[in-house]
Amino acid sequence: MIPRAETAHWVAGALSLFFGLVLISELIVGREVFYRRKWRAYLFPSLVIASSVGLWVITIFSTFSTMHLLAHSIWAQAALVAGAVELALARGKIARPAWSLVPAFALLVSGMAFLVHEQNPWLYSRSAFLHHAIGWMLVVVALFPLGRAVQPGRLVWRSGYALTFVALAVLLFADRDAAEIFGRFGLGGP
Amino acid sequence: MNSEVATSVPREGQRQGVERRPWRALAVQLLGPLTIVGGLVWGVAQPYRILILDRDRGGDLYDYVFQGPLLAILVGLAFAVFVAPGLVADLEAEDRRDPAS
A27, A67, A174, B95 - which has most CB atoms within 10 Å? Predict the structure, then answer.
């Protein structure tokens, strides 16, 4: 049984919220304490890689539209590459701050894919609105890992990166397949 | 002043460290419950999204399980149970190991 698009978006929202909580907690306790247990160091990268696998599965079911197929492929690939780099950073295989350019590029490409594959204008539907909002948000927040690459010590870049996932979760949770913008008609609501 | 009695003024970093530790542990412990509360408030604000409360409307497994408020509660619960306790324990261990830092 294939889930509806909105269900997949809510699950992605839950995962994004968990990412956000993990990154915020890392920010609060500091890297030294957070990395004290190995599994915690690998938690974020492995979940990103797992989510890329999930996105590939969604790609398989996106054959109804070439644009959706390409967009989901790009997100899956971007998540896979970003997750691999985060994993290599956690394992200590790579250490240079410049590697943060890879997640920055992944966010930028993901945002552009969101914007390109939504062919309806902002106010066409709630789904269209959210695709535009998420797309532009991802394009802008790509600055955070970019800033981390240039100034790895600055708290603002790491905080922004962590809060990005919480904001993304809120937007994904707000998604509806058929609801009018900011409404809930036709989906069993009162 | 007798130098054998007088002690040095703690460095700024040391004083900050003593003050910062408790709120860090508290903040980590609050992340999960706050997320759970967020999910509960959302569920109260939009009760029609919790299909368990209104089974007459019908629906499939996804409608029952994968609803935003329930997922938010689940995420908060997972963080509070699996991640936060270890982080707090490690923070406390860090305090015991290096109380001045």
Answer: A174
